[in-house]
Amino acid sequence: xxxxxxxxxxxxxxxxxxxxxxxxxxxxxxxxxxxxxxxxxxxxxxxxxxxxxxxxxxxxxxxxxxxxxxxxxxxxxxxxxxxxxxxxxxxxxxxxxxxxxxxxxxxxxxxxxxxxxxxxxxxxxxxxxxxxxxxxxxxxxxxxxxxxxxxxxxxxxxxxxxxxxxxx
Length: 168
Description:
The chain is of the alpha/beta class and 168 residues long. The protein has five helices and five strands, in the order βαβαβαβαβα. It has a five-stranded parallel sheet with strand order 3-2-1-4-5. α1 packs parallel to α5. The longest helix has 17 residues, at 65-81. The protein is globular, with a radius of gyration of 15 Å.
């Protein structure tokens, strides 16, 4: 089995704008600028896309699973219809204080995927907006890229797409 290049991509704050109340609802959903064409370019360049997201409190009264599922299904359908399908979606539903092994920056969420797929560690990355995403990258032994719509705080999606495809 040959190894593959994988991009482990965070969701809130990376693919979509993180709302102030922390819970994303379909009516308030906004994509980060340039994310759709960038993901299509990366997928076309041979990168597998895997969403890795902490969704603390998922399934509680404050964050019903139906609200998450509505947004998640819309996102997956949108990205897939534009040529940027996600091969897998890995979700930690636990609050930080639960101390689980699957909450980023721990690797438990990704370990099963890594066992089932040969991953090219030298050419795979975590893309996210938080320190936990960058720490996940270090814990996995791969590179990390901070994304942000403000270039002074991280790379934009169009910059990321250019960076990855320029070296091919």
